[in-house]
Every structure is written in C-alpha cells, then in structure tokens.
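Quick bug: Lipoprotein output formatted oddly.
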Amino acid sequence: MRGKRIGSGAALLAGALAVTGLAFAPSALAVAPTTATFTASCGLFGGGAATLEATQSGTSATLKLSSTAITAPIPISANSISSTLTMANSTGAARVFTGAVNPAMATGAPITVGPLSGTVASGDSLDINGGSLKMVVFGITVTCTATGPQAPGPFVFD
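Here's what came back:
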C-alpha cells in the first residue's frame, strides 16, 4: 500500500511541476513590430499618414489600416469596402490580405479597413512600400501606395 501512495504522490508532484513550467514559459513571439506607420498616396482621393496593425496566429495573419489623413468622401456603411492589401515580401512572393471589413463612416470620417486576412510563412518580412491598398467603394476603385518604407520597419512573422 505504501508503494501506491509514493507513486501517487510522485505523479501529483510531477503534474504540479509541469503546470508550473507552462505558467512561467515564455510566450512565443508572433509578428514584430505589431504597429507600423507610413505615408500613403491615394491619387485624387488624397493621402497622408496611415497606420498598419498586424496580428498573427500560426500561418494566418491579419492587417488593419487606418488613417486620419484619408477620409470618407461620402457616408459609408459598415462592411461595404472590398479591400485588397498587397504587401511586398523581401523573402519571397508578395502577400495579399483581403476582406470587406470596415466600420460605418460618416462623410469626412477617418478611413479604417480591416482586419484583412491573409496567409504568411515563418520569416516573411512584409512592407507596404512596394505594395498597395485597393479599396472598392460603391464600384469606384481607390488605389493607395506608400511613398516610402514603413516605420519602424517591416513586419517580420515568426
């Protein structure tokens, strides 16, 4: 009977140590940085400072773009902008993020699109410079490009 108690106690101790190890294990990094800024040029539709926010979960990633310098020319209802964001990839083929996700925007409101979904590979280094954002609003295509590299640098995916 004594052998069973020692075996049970050892199993409990091993389980407790394993849980403690998981609690203190460092979390895996995904994408760095998670936020970058750049200057966008959208032709007749204006341009200016814009922000990109990136998230990653395995090979799935999302990007969200917002800009107070680029504004809605007319009221836009939620989820009505079809967006395609192409990011230049210094380690291979460009990565494309798509979706029709946006908040409702009044005339003159800052533009926000995303999160736009795409697929990435470990080591991808993505920059909007060399890519573009195409938004289709009420059948009108607006294309925005970067006038230089994003800061503080490209999104590097884990």
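Actually, after a second look the formatting is fine. The chain has one domain: 31-157. Closing.
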